[in-house]
Amino acid sequence: MKQISAHESFIMRWQEGVLKWQKPEEPVARVMAPPGAPPIIILPGFGNARKDYTEPFGDKSSALVTHLEARGFSVYVPPLERGDWFKVARGLLTLKFWSSTLTTDPGYTWYLDRVAATVELARLETGSSQVDLIGHSAGGWLARAYLADPKYMSMDPGSVRALLTSDAVSGGGGGGSVPNPRVRSLVTLGSPQRPPLKEKGRDMTGGAQGWLDTSFPGAFFAPQGVRYTTVAGRTVRGHRDFPRQREGTRVPQEYAYDSYFQVCGDGEGIEGDCVVPLNSALLDGANQILLDGVYHSMSKIGTFEESSSVVWYGSDDVIDHWLHVLLPPAPSPPPEEHTVAESSTVKASSKLLDASIPVPTASTTAAAMALSSYDVTE
Predict the structure, then answer these.
(1) What is the pTM of this model?
(2) How far, CA to CA in Å, does 28 sit from each of 73, 272, 294, 316, 318?
Protein backbone atom coordinates (compact mmCIF):
# COMPACT_ATOMS: atom_id res chain seq x y z
CA MET A 1 0.00 0.00 0.00
CA LYS A 2 1.34 3.42 -0.96
CA GLN A 3 2.36 5.58 1.97
CA ILE A 4 0.83 9.06 1.97
CA SER A 5 3.28 11.83 2.79
CA ALA A 6 2.47 14.54 5.28
CA HIS A 7 2.31 17.04 2.41
CA GLU A 8 -0.13 14.88 0.43
CA SER A 9 -2.25 14.39 3.52
CA PHE A 10 -2.41 18.15 4.02
CA ILE A 11 -3.45 18.69 0.40
CA MET A 12 -6.22 16.09 0.78
CA ARG A 13 -7.59 17.92 3.81
CA TRP A 14 -8.55 20.88 1.64
CA GLN A 15 -12.10 20.34 0.41
CA GLU A 16 -13.24 22.80 -2.26
CA GLY A 17 -11.07 25.55 -0.84
CA VAL A 18 -11.92 24.93 2.81
CA LEU A 19 -9.61 23.41 5.40
CA LYS A 20 -11.44 21.77 8.29
CA TRP A 21 -10.38 21.85 11.91
CA GLN A 22 -8.98 18.61 13.25
CA LYS A 23 -8.19 17.91 16.87
CA PRO A 24 -4.56 16.84 17.25
CA GLU A 25 -3.93 13.18 17.93
CA GLU A 26 -2.02 14.16 21.05
CA PRO A 27 -4.26 16.24 23.35
CA VAL A 28 -3.03 19.78 23.96
CA ALA A 29 -2.43 20.49 27.63
CA ARG A 30 -5.05 22.70 29.22
CA VAL A 31 -3.51 26.06 30.08
CA MET A 32 -4.20 27.19 33.63
CA ALA A 33 -3.46 30.63 35.01
CA PRO A 34 -0.32 30.63 37.16
CA PRO A 35 -0.38 32.38 40.55
CA GLY A 36 -0.28 36.13 40.12
CA ALA A 37 -1.23 36.04 36.43
CA PRO A 38 -2.07 39.53 35.16
CA PRO A 39 -5.70 40.20 34.25
CA ILE A 40 -6.66 39.79 30.61
CA ILE A 41 -8.32 42.60 28.65
CA ILE A 42 -10.20 41.48 25.52
CA LEU A 43 -10.35 44.14 22.81
CA PRO A 44 -13.41 43.53 20.59
CA GLY A 45 -13.26 43.49 16.82
CA PHE A 46 -14.92 45.97 14.46
CA GLY A 47 -18.70 45.87 14.88
CA ASN A 48 -18.48 43.58 17.88
CA ALA A 49 -20.07 44.31 21.24
CA ARG A 50 -19.00 43.27 24.70
CA LYS A 51 -21.71 40.62 24.81
CA ASP A 52 -20.09 38.78 21.88
CA TYR A 53 -17.31 37.77 24.27
CA THR A 54 -19.30 37.38 27.49
CA GLU A 55 -22.59 35.87 26.32
CA PRO A 56 -22.72 35.36 22.54
CA PHE A 57 -26.24 34.74 21.26
CA GLY A 58 -27.40 34.49 24.87
CA ASP A 59 -25.14 31.51 25.59
CA LYS A 60 -22.69 32.33 28.36
CA SER A 61 -21.28 28.78 28.35
CA SER A 62 -19.74 29.25 24.89
CA ALA A 63 -18.18 32.66 25.62
CA LEU A 64 -14.47 33.37 25.34
CA VAL A 65 -14.61 35.05 28.75
CA THR A 66 -16.17 31.94 30.28
CA HIS A 67 -13.48 29.67 28.81
CA LEU A 68 -10.69 31.92 30.11
CA GLU A 69 -12.21 32.26 33.56
CA ALA A 70 -12.57 28.47 33.75
CA ARG A 71 -8.79 28.39 33.36
CA GLY A 72 -8.33 30.70 36.32
CA PHE A 73 -7.77 34.04 34.55
CA SER A 74 -9.37 37.34 35.51
CA VAL A 75 -10.96 38.73 32.35
CA TYR A 76 -12.30 42.15 31.44
CA VAL A 77 -13.98 43.49 28.30
CA PRO A 78 -14.54 47.20 27.60
CA PRO A 79 -18.24 48.17 27.67
CA LEU A 80 -18.91 48.41 23.94
CA GLU A 81 -22.26 48.28 22.17
CA ARG A 82 -22.61 47.56 18.49
CA GLY A 83 -23.96 51.04 17.82
CA ASP A 84 -20.80 52.60 19.26
CA TRP A 85 -18.99 51.77 16.05
CA PHE A 86 -20.91 54.47 14.17
CA LYS A 87 -18.56 56.90 15.96
CA VAL A 88 -15.83 55.78 13.57
CA ALA A 89 -17.67 57.85 10.96
CA ARG A 90 -16.35 61.01 12.61
CA GLY A 91 -13.25 60.51 10.54
CA LEU A 92 -15.31 60.78 7.35
CA LEU A 93 -15.91 64.44 8.12
CA THR A 94 -12.23 65.29 7.94
CA LEU A 95 -10.03 66.06 4.96
CA LYS A 96 -7.40 63.76 6.42
CA PHE A 97 -9.68 60.76 5.94
CA TRP A 98 -9.95 61.35 2.21
CA SER A 99 -6.21 61.90 1.92
CA SER A 100 -5.56 58.79 4.05
CA THR A 101 -3.52 60.75 6.59
CA LEU A 102 -5.56 60.15 9.75
CA THR A 103 -4.25 58.69 12.98
CA THR A 104 -6.60 56.95 15.41
CA ASP A 105 -7.99 60.40 16.24
CA PRO A 106 -10.86 61.18 15.90
CA GLY A 107 -12.43 57.95 14.61
CA TYR A 108 -11.17 55.60 17.31
CA THR A 109 -10.59 57.92 20.28
CA TRP A 110 -13.75 56.69 22.00
CA TYR A 111 -12.60 53.06 21.67
CA LEU A 112 -9.12 53.63 23.08
CA ASP A 113 -10.58 55.64 25.96
CA ARG A 114 -12.78 52.65 26.90
CA VAL A 115 -9.78 50.34 26.70
CA ALA A 116 -7.69 52.62 28.91
CA ALA A 117 -10.42 52.86 31.53
CA THR A 118 -10.92 49.09 31.54
CA VAL A 119 -7.18 48.54 32.00
CA GLU A 120 -7.23 50.84 35.04
CA LEU A 121 -10.26 49.08 36.52
CA ALA A 122 -8.61 45.68 36.07
CA ARG A 123 -5.44 46.88 37.80
CA LEU A 124 -7.48 48.40 40.62
CA GLU A 125 -9.58 45.30 41.27
CA THR A 126 -6.80 42.74 40.95
CA GLY A 127 -3.90 44.71 42.40
CA SER A 128 -1.81 43.84 39.37
CA SER A 129 0.60 46.40 37.91
CA GLN A 130 0.24 45.00 34.38
CA VAL A 131 -2.30 43.42 32.07
CA ASP A 132 -2.26 41.14 29.04
CA LEU A 133 -4.13 42.40 25.98
CA ILE A 134 -5.98 40.02 23.64
CA GLY A 135 -7.14 41.85 20.52
CA HIS A 136 -9.65 40.14 18.25
CA SER A 137 -9.76 41.32 14.64
CA ALA A 138 -9.54 45.15 14.59
CA GLY A 139 -9.01 44.99 18.35
CA GLY A 140 -5.50 43.75 17.58
CA TRP A 141 -4.23 46.78 15.70
CA LEU A 142 -6.12 49.08 18.06
CA ALA A 143 -4.31 47.38 20.96
CA ARG A 144 -1.05 48.34 19.29
CA ALA A 145 -2.31 51.93 19.12
CA TYR A 146 -3.18 51.94 22.82
CA LEU A 147 0.24 50.52 23.63
CA ALA A 148 1.97 53.42 21.88
CA ASP A 149 -0.27 56.39 22.75
CA PRO A 150 1.29 58.74 25.35
CA LYS A 151 -2.20 59.88 26.34
CA TYR A 152 -2.68 56.64 28.27
CA MET A 153 0.75 56.36 29.84
CA SER A 154 -0.46 57.89 33.11
CA MET A 155 -4.02 57.97 34.38
CA ASP A 156 -5.72 60.13 36.98
CA PRO A 157 -8.14 57.94 38.98
CA GLY A 158 -10.77 60.64 38.62
CA SER A 159 -10.67 60.32 34.84
CA VAL A 160 -11.58 56.63 34.72
CA ARG A 161 -15.34 57.10 34.76
CA ALA A 162 -15.08 59.86 32.17
CA LEU A 163 -13.17 57.57 29.83
CA LEU A 164 -15.66 54.72 30.21
CA THR A 165 -18.46 56.99 29.07
CA SER A 166 -16.25 58.88 26.65
CA ASP A 167 -17.83 60.47 23.64
CA ALA A 168 -14.68 62.44 22.92
CA VAL A 169 -14.22 63.66 19.39
CA SER A 170 -10.52 64.32 19.70
CA GLY A 171 -7.49 63.58 21.80
CA GLY A 172 -4.82 60.96 21.55
CA GLY A 173 -3.85 59.50 18.23
CA GLY A 174 -0.18 60.06 18.89
CA GLY A 175 2.78 57.86 19.54
CA GLY A 176 5.72 57.76 21.87
CA SER A 177 9.09 56.07 21.97
CA VAL A 178 8.23 53.86 24.93
CA PRO A 179 5.36 51.39 25.40
CA ASN A 180 2.63 51.78 27.96
CA PRO A 181 4.15 50.14 31.07
CA ARG A 182 0.77 48.68 32.00
CA VAL A 183 0.99 46.14 29.19
CA ARG A 184 2.99 42.96 29.67
CA SER A 185 2.00 41.20 26.46
CA LEU A 186 -0.20 41.49 23.41
CA VAL A 187 -1.93 38.62 21.59
CA THR A 188 -3.82 39.33 18.37
CA LEU A 189 -6.42 36.93 16.95
CA GLY A 190 -7.04 37.27 13.22
CA SER A 191 -6.14 40.96 13.23
CA PRO A 192 -5.54 42.95 10.04
CA GLN A 193 -2.19 44.47 10.99
CA ARG A 194 -1.74 46.78 8.01
CA PRO A 195 -3.68 48.31 5.10
CA PRO A 196 -3.27 47.14 1.51
CA LEU A 197 -0.42 48.53 -0.54
CA LYS A 198 -1.38 51.87 -2.10
CA GLU A 199 -1.30 50.44 -5.60
CA LYS A 200 -3.69 47.66 -4.58
CA GLY A 201 -6.33 49.39 -2.52
CA ARG A 202 -7.42 52.12 -0.17
CA ASP A 203 -6.77 52.23 3.57
CA MET A 204 -10.38 51.89 4.77
CA THR A 205 -9.45 53.46 8.12
CA GLY A 206 -8.59 56.76 6.44
CA GLY A 207 -4.91 56.26 7.08
CA ALA A 208 -5.06 55.19 10.74
CA GLN A 209 -3.83 51.67 10.08
CA GLY A 210 -1.13 52.89 7.74
CA TRP A 211 0.02 55.51 10.24
CA LEU A 212 0.24 52.89 12.98
CA ASP A 213 2.10 50.34 10.88
CA THR A 214 4.54 52.95 9.62
CA SER A 215 5.16 54.54 13.01
CA PHE A 216 5.30 51.30 15.00
CA PRO A 217 6.00 48.48 12.53
CA GLY A 218 6.05 44.84 13.55
CA ALA A 219 6.72 43.92 17.17
CA PHE A 220 7.97 47.46 17.70
CA PHE A 221 8.23 47.41 21.50
CA ALA A 222 9.58 43.86 21.82
CA PRO A 223 13.12 45.11 22.57
CA GLN A 224 11.60 46.99 25.51
CA GLY A 225 9.99 43.88 26.93
CA VAL A 226 6.52 43.64 25.40
CA ARG A 227 5.69 40.08 24.35
CA TYR A 228 3.90 40.00 20.98
CA THR A 229 2.01 37.00 19.56
CA THR A 230 0.01 37.04 16.33
CA VAL A 231 -2.46 34.21 15.73
CA ALA A 232 -3.82 33.52 12.25
CA GLY A 233 -6.26 30.99 10.85
CA ARG A 234 -5.69 29.10 7.60
CA THR A 235 -9.18 27.96 6.71
CA VAL A 236 -10.65 29.35 3.46
CA ARG A 237 -9.15 30.11 0.05
CA GLY A 238 -10.74 33.09 -1.63
CA HIS A 239 -12.47 32.41 -4.95
CA ARG A 240 -14.38 35.13 -6.78
CA ASP A 241 -16.67 32.90 -8.83
CA PHE A 242 -16.95 29.66 -6.91
CA PRO A 243 -18.78 27.00 -8.96
CA ARG A 244 -22.01 25.95 -7.30
CA GLN A 245 -25.33 24.42 -8.12
CA ARG A 246 -27.69 27.19 -7.06
CA GLU A 247 -27.97 30.94 -6.60
CA GLY A 248 -28.14 32.39 -3.12
CA THR A 249 -26.02 33.93 -0.42
CA ARG A 250 -22.29 33.94 -0.91
CA VAL A 251 -20.46 30.77 0.04
CA PRO A 252 -17.40 31.09 2.32
CA GLN A 253 -14.97 31.06 -0.62
CA GLU A 254 -16.72 34.06 -2.23
CA TYR A 255 -17.07 35.92 1.05
CA ALA A 256 -13.39 35.30 1.75
CA TYR A 257 -12.42 36.65 -1.68
CA ASP A 258 -14.27 39.92 -1.06
CA SER A 259 -12.93 40.31 2.47
CA TYR A 260 -9.32 39.47 1.59
CA PHE A 261 -9.45 41.85 -1.35
CA GLN A 262 -10.59 44.69 0.91
CA VAL A 263 -7.96 43.90 3.53
CA CYS A 264 -4.89 43.34 1.33
CA GLY A 265 -5.86 44.04 -2.28
CA ASP A 266 -5.79 40.36 -3.34
CA GLY A 267 -8.40 37.66 -2.99
CA GLU A 268 -8.12 34.90 -5.58
CA GLY A 269 -6.47 31.83 -4.07
CA ILE A 270 -5.45 33.77 -0.96
CA GLU A 271 -5.67 31.81 2.30
CA GLY A 272 -6.93 33.10 5.62
CA ASP A 273 -9.59 32.78 8.30
CA CYS A 274 -12.43 33.74 5.89
CA VAL A 275 -12.10 37.44 6.83
CA VAL A 276 -8.41 38.31 7.25
CA PRO A 277 -5.69 36.82 5.00
CA LEU A 278 -2.67 35.15 6.56
CA ASN A 279 -0.06 37.68 5.54
CA SER A 280 -2.12 40.55 6.93
CA ALA A 281 -2.57 38.85 10.31
CA LEU A 282 1.12 38.29 11.10
CA LEU A 283 3.59 40.81 12.52
CA ASP A 284 7.30 40.70 11.85
CA GLY A 285 9.23 39.96 15.02
CA ALA A 286 6.24 38.52 16.86
CA ASN A 287 5.73 34.97 18.01
CA GLN A 288 3.53 33.62 15.20
CA ILE A 289 0.92 30.88 15.55
CA LEU A 290 -0.85 29.38 12.53
CA LEU A 291 -4.06 27.44 13.16
CA ASP A 292 -5.54 25.24 10.42
CA GLY A 293 -9.32 25.16 10.14
CA VAL A 294 -10.02 28.02 12.54
CA TYR A 295 -12.48 30.71 11.47
CA HIS A 296 -12.37 34.42 12.20
CA SER A 297 -15.45 34.92 14.30
CA MET A 298 -18.12 33.42 16.51
CA SER A 299 -20.75 34.88 14.14
CA LYS A 300 -22.06 33.60 10.83
CA ILE A 301 -20.44 35.41 7.91
CA GLY A 302 -22.25 38.62 7.06
CA THR A 303 -24.03 38.95 10.42
CA PHE A 304 -23.38 39.52 14.12
CA GLU A 305 -26.60 38.00 15.44
CA GLU A 306 -26.35 34.37 14.34
CA SER A 307 -23.85 31.77 15.52
CA SER A 308 -21.45 30.44 12.92
CA SER A 309 -21.42 26.99 14.55
CA VAL A 310 -17.82 26.61 13.43
CA VAL A 311 -14.53 26.56 15.29
CA TRP A 312 -13.08 30.05 15.85
CA TYR A 313 -10.17 31.52 17.82
CA GLY A 314 -12.23 31.62 21.01
CA SER A 315 -13.57 28.06 20.88
CA ASP A 316 -12.76 25.95 23.91
CA ASP A 317 -10.94 23.39 21.74
CA VAL A 318 -8.74 26.10 20.23
CA ILE A 319 -7.82 28.41 23.11
CA ASP A 320 -5.03 26.25 24.52
CA HIS A 321 -3.26 26.32 21.14
CA TRP A 322 -2.42 29.99 21.71
CA LEU A 323 -3.10 30.78 25.37
CA HIS A 324 0.15 29.17 26.49
CA VAL A 325 2.03 32.26 25.32
CA LEU A 326 0.76 34.06 28.44
CA LEU A 327 2.55 31.63 30.71
CA PRO A 328 5.92 32.64 32.16
CA PRO A 329 8.83 31.68 29.89
CA ALA A 330 10.43 28.38 30.78
CA PRO A 331 13.63 28.88 32.79
CA SER A 332 16.83 28.38 30.89
CA PRO A 333 18.86 25.30 31.84
CA PRO A 334 21.93 26.04 33.96
CA PRO A 335 25.12 26.35 31.94
CA GLU A 336 27.45 23.39 31.90
CA GLU A 337 30.67 23.71 33.84
CA HIS A 338 32.81 23.85 30.72
CA THR A 339 30.86 26.81 29.32
CA VAL A 340 33.18 29.77 28.90
CA ALA A 341 30.63 32.55 28.40
CA GLU A 342 26.90 32.91 28.06
CA SER A 343 25.36 33.82 24.74
CA SER A 344 24.45 37.47 24.51
CA THR A 345 21.48 36.70 22.31
CA VAL A 346 18.14 36.97 24.08
CA LYS A 347 14.78 36.57 22.40
CA ALA A 348 12.75 39.72 22.80
CA SER A 349 9.58 37.69 23.27
CA SER A 350 11.06 36.15 26.42
CA LYS A 351 11.78 39.43 28.17
CA LEU A 352 9.50 40.63 30.93
CA LEU A 353 8.82 44.21 31.83
CA ASP A 354 10.02 45.37 35.20
CA ALA A 355 6.78 45.37 37.19
CA SER A 356 7.76 48.54 39.01
CA ILE A 357 4.94 50.81 37.91
CA PRO A 358 2.63 51.88 40.72
CA VAL A 359 -0.11 49.45 41.68
CA PRO A 360 -3.52 51.04 42.34
CA THR A 361 -4.05 51.58 46.06
CA ALA A 362 -6.86 52.52 48.39
CA SER A 363 -6.52 56.09 47.18
CA THR A 364 -8.39 55.06 44.04
CA THR A 365 -11.43 53.74 45.93
CA ALA A 366 -13.48 56.71 44.77
CA ALA A 367 -12.78 55.80 41.16
CA ALA A 368 -13.89 52.21 41.80
CA MET A 369 -17.15 53.42 43.30
CA ALA A 370 -17.70 55.66 40.30
CA LEU A 371 -17.34 52.65 38.02
CA SER A 372 -19.87 50.52 39.88
CA SER A 373 -22.52 51.06 37.21
CA TYR A 374 -20.18 49.87 34.45
CA ASP A 375 -19.70 46.13 34.70
CA VAL A 376 -16.75 45.20 32.49
CA THR A 377 -16.17 41.79 34.00
CA GLU A 378 -18.18 38.61 34.19
Answers:
(1) 0.82
(2) 18, 23, 16, 12, 9
